[in-house]
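tool_log.txt
---
The assistant was asked to compare two proteins side by side. It first ran the structure predictor on the initial sequence, then on the second. Raw inputs and outputs are pasted verbatim so the downstream comparison step can read them without reformatting.
(1)
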Amino acid sequence: MVFVAGLLFSMSSCAVMFNGTTKRVNITSMTPNSEIYVDGLFVGTEKASVKLKRRHDHLITVKKAGCKQQMVPLDKKFQVEWVLLYMFVNVFAVATDAPTGAWYGFERSQIVVPENDCTE
């Protein structure tokens, strides 16, 4: 029984437990009545709070009729501290964190898109 408990512990993942596989990102557009899209999907008008998968890069797009479309890339960032932790504590956790993307993060969790002057 102790062996099974030890095996289950060794297969657990710190990044999944502490980071999760998604991250909440708050997006604000300073252009009044503009629409916010993430990866092509509408998420709100002027403000949005979305949970994004850590394992993917994302593209935030702000649109308003008569205005130039604004795009803001949100790229995933590898968090090397998890690998360092695995080297000393639990090397088997890589089997969970690599496919789930839990060891990635984003540079920002608050994104403000500046006002568009709408002079296309």
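(2)
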Amino acid sequence: MSCRVLVAEPDRDVRASFAEAIADAGGIVYPAGSLREGLEVLDRSVVEASVIDEVLPDGSGFDLLDALRSRLQRDIPCVLTTARPSKEVRLRALSMGVVTVWPLPYPREQVVISFQRIVIRYVRPFVVLAATWPAVG
């Protein structure tokens, strides 16, 4: 159950941790450490989901989310990560269609489980359904 995922996180260790957890859950990770790098990923790759930090060194995660949605011209599941999970941040994220907000630090095991659920629900629902459908015969 592979899924191509943009992971935009300025902290190299956190980005690597997310990338490893998502890869363990079946994801193919396209890492970015800034808004510019995230835009470069969008220019050269097709992504099906994203994990974006609220604060990037050269802009905000919300800026990248806007760019992602306008460039793809479709919605894909997005997770927003934040070190300051205030009510305002959560409401803004949810109003922009973010699936969930992960407060940092977010445990690795929860990244794996959450990512698997996002893929099953938003990216590959019909593949999972077909795989679990009873055989006719």
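---
observation on (2): The helical segments are 12-24, 35-44, 61-72, 87-95, 108-123, 125-132. The CA atoms of residues 66 and 77 lie 13 Å apart.
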